[in-house]
What we know:
alpha/beta; 47% helix
Amino acid sequence: METASAKYDVVAGSGLLQELAPRIERVVKRLPRRIFVVTSQEIWALWHCMQQSFGEAPVVLFLPPGERYKTMASAERLTREMVRAGGDRSSLLIAFGGGIVGDVGGFVAAIFMRGIEYVQVPTTFLAQVDSSVGGKVGVNLPEGKNLVGNFLQPRAVLADIGVLGTLPDRELRAGLMESVKAGIIRDRALVRYMEEHAEEILKREPKALERVIAASIRMKADVVRRDERESGLRMILNFGHTVGHALEQATRYKAMLHGEAVAWGMIAALYVARRRGTITGGQMERLERLIYRYGPLPKLKVSAGRVLAATGSDKKNVGGVRRFVLPGGIGDAGVVEDVTGAEIEAAVKYMLVRARTAG
Ligand SMILES: NC(=O)c1ccc[n+]([C@@H]2O[C@H](COP(=O)([O-])OP(=O)(O)OC[C@H]3O[C@@H](n4cnc5c(N)ncnc54)[C@H](O)[C@@H]3O)[C@@H](O)[C@H]2O)c1
Ligand SMILES: [Zn+2]
């Protein structure tokens, strides 16, 4: 992975957890005196073996699971615990968990003592294919998701496929939605692979998982390399996220997983694309079928009005411009700025109808 600000390895494979310390040492040259692991209790209970390769046990800091702890308050608490445990500017942080741990852990690394180095060791499918790569770190505000944060590239991303063995099925399926997204916006072959190998993927056959993870990471790394700070191309990664984030916000981050919200958001965005003719009816059907294949998607107990209100506060609207990612065929996408409120309303209504009838 190479961006304007950093160059680092993204490794996905088996057995990485057993060799974390030497792998990290290779990139940071010398392991610092204080190493912090930010994780959650449930992940630690399952995978504390990750500390075995360290000579001295790292200091473990816990973040309770759930989007409602992805907050400034959590970040403040963690930084205070780090100070009390002797952290300094040379300390290293390892974010060991899903996307929430990764976003909060990375944010803490970005602000602690004005910034320390960190490594991502993602443990959910979503974190392995998406959130751990690209250096976006941050927390939510009551006003909206990810509204406070920064860009800070990790020194390395080490994704051990073995840890996915304990991931609940629903989490796996939700994470796979980001790979579906990756395929739709930039990788036709990945779309076809996910269509043809859904059974192996959902059964977690290592070869199939590795294929999907590698392709998703490659896509994201390529986009981020060209546009680290989201001034243009990187916006396509937000395909499905305008309405997806609105759904999460309208249901107070409680009713569905991020990937599930993105799945519904992609269906809404496909509808806009279909109406504009940037994709054909046949393509829309095919892509909707692919999304449902990795479902079931949650039912939506929310009104169109609430979802629409939430789209209005999306931070991707620059100066009142409504930015929206539309696919142009399969494996291609672009950003448009002229999507009207009426189009989004029609798309949200379509999505709500599909939530009642499809699946
Ligand atoms: N920074 C980015 O670029 C980016 C991109 C996409 C998403 N995100 C963020 O990622 C977050 C979602 O991440 P997520 O989907 O990984 O959810 P998550 O971090 O909430 O993890 C999901 C659940 O799985 C548990 N878990 C994690 N690993 C496990 C394992 N190996 N075995 C068993 N249980 C395990 C966690 O404790 C948690 O309860 C959202 O906040 C989203 O905004 C960030
Ligand atoms: Zn996402």
